[in-house]
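Example S7 (structure tokens).
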């Protein structure tokens, strides 16, 4: 789950089944967050990594433009 909290991007990594939060990442830079998440999860599917990068970029732009962000 990707959210905006104040001026930070907040990512909550959840389990597929129960939805339990197993890791949390936060920061201002989409690329740095994507690199950290992918580094911590080396088995991430390439398609999911691309999706994650796109959504993190959207969240970063929303913060810069003072707009709402909703993950698709």
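Recovered sequence:
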């Amino acid at each position: 789950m990707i959210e905006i909290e104040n001026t930070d991007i907040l990512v909550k990594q959840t389990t597929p089944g129960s939805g339990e939060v197993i890791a949390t990442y936060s920061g201002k830079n989409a690329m740095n967050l994507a690199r950290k998440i992918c580094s911590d999860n080396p088995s991430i599917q390439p398609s999911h990594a691309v999706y994650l990068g796109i959504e993190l970029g959207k969240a970063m732009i929303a913060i810069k433009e003072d707009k709402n962000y909703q993950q698709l």
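Notes on this example. Residues 38 and 54 are 14 Å apart (CA to CA).
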